[in-house]
Amino acid sequence: MAKILQVCNTDFYLTKFLSPLILALVREGHHVECLCEGSNVPDFGGDVIVHEMKFPKSASPFEFLHSISEMRKLLREKQYTCVNSHNRNTSIVGRIASWQEKVPVKIYTVHGAYFHEDQSPLQRFASIMLERLLAKTTDFTLSQSHEDSLLLMERAGVKAELVKTIGNGIDTSRFKPKDQRDKIFRVGATGRLVKGKGFMDLINGFAQLHQKHPDSELLLIGGNIKNDIVPFQQHILARIKELKLENAVVVTGMVDNVEDYLATCDVFVLPSYREGMPRALLEAMSMGIPAIATNIRGCREIIVEGENGYLYTPHDVMALAHLLNNMYKQTANERKYFAENARSRIVQSFDEKGYINRQVNYINKLLQ
Question: Contact 222/261 with Cβ under 8 angstroms?
Fold first, then answer.
């Protein structure tokens, strides 16, 4: 039995994304503890201890040094066998602290590499150089995206034998076809309303669709959480008002029953500028909803162009509007074809059980 610390940025992330892995590791007989910011955490039945700590919200070296120092105290006291770090700032703190404290097994799980096409050349270079340095503190890397795995090897100097692609997975029994659509053509999108998710592009693209087809509606399933570094919801609401779309756009705020809202949608859009292997896209497609997504790493590993959805260049609002219009004009048979292919793709390749098993197997091998 190993003593494992899972490190992530927020209680939201711990609850929504890491809980299945944590419970699976407990079932394997490991002692698991967690470190995150926020106290609104799941009830693990007393099997998992959750420690609370603040992580940097900016690029301030002083914030990072303080967080690293605080985490080192915890590592010194608890003497973990393995530290598994997630998310950007959190993983920087976690990887450096666990390296300095000589934790036997140091794992980094990549939920989307932080050097990407939407950065300026200088930002991208800096991100790659940072990852090159951090790779030296890391024993093993688990990457959701195969493209990210290749980039980590090519750009960040990670050895091929020290990185594995794990994909992603969602509960396909929860996110299953459940048609609650009505006569309105409804465009759906899910996520935290932050700038990098591209929701402003979606609103602008939808405005063009709505001008041609007034019987269309946009459903934004999401909002902001208290830990968001740059919340963007107010900017989105202001843009909706500016375009006079208040009666055509619904913003739900953060909800737990995402699947009930998705069931009312005819098409799903993910307009993000950077992703790992986006769960929002997997959940919608698992429900048999055709998808439109940006042509970025992760998305193009899920969508098969012209079979279960379409891809477009990030920021290209005209292309997005064109694809929305095409989806609106689809016949019932065409929609059925896309829907069945979308569901089949996710069930075959992105079921949660396989995703969790892959992680547990790799962690067990490293612990041996």
Answer: no
Residue 52 backbone dihedrals phi, psi, to 5 degrees = -105, 135
CATH of 3-169+351-367, one of 3.40.50.670, 3.40.50.2000, 3.40.50.720, 3.40.190.290: 3.40.50.2000
CB 3, CB 30: distance < 8 Å: yes
Task: Quote the pTM value.
Answer: 0.93
Q: What is the rounded CA–CA span in Å between residue 150 and residue 156?
A: 10
**Tens digit of each residue's pLDDT (9 = 90 or more) over 154-210:** 999 999 999 999 999 999 999 999 988 888 999 999 998 888 899 999 999 999 999
Rounded CA separation 162/135 (Å): 10
- The answer to whether the 3-169+351-367 and 185-349 domains have the same CATH topology is yes
Q: Is the dihedral of CA 130, 135, 140, 142 positive or negative?
A: positive
Q: How far apart are CA 42 and CA 6, in angstroms?
A: 14
Are 75 and 83 in contact, with CB atoms under 8 Å apart?
Answer: yes
With beta carbons less than 8 A apart as the criterion, state whether 116 and 297 touch.
yes
CATH superfamily, with its number, for domain 185-349: Glycogen Phosphorylase B; (3.40.50.2000)
Please enumerate in sequence order all residues whose Cβ is within 8 A of that of 67, keeping only pairs 6 or more positions apart, or say none: 53, 54, 55, 56, 93
Q: Which residue ranges make up each domain of the chain?
A: 3-169+351-367, 185-349
CA–CA distance, 38 with 14 (Å, rounded to integer): 10
- CB neighbours of residue 181 within 10 Å: 13
Spatial neighbors of 320 by CB under 8 A, at least 6 apart, are 201, 202, 205, 269, 271, 292, 312
Q: pLDDT digits over 105-161, tens only?
A: 999 999 998 887 778 889 889 999 999 999 999 999 999 999 999 999 999 999 999
What is the rounded distance in angstroms from the CA atom of residue 189 to the CA atom of residue 222? 8
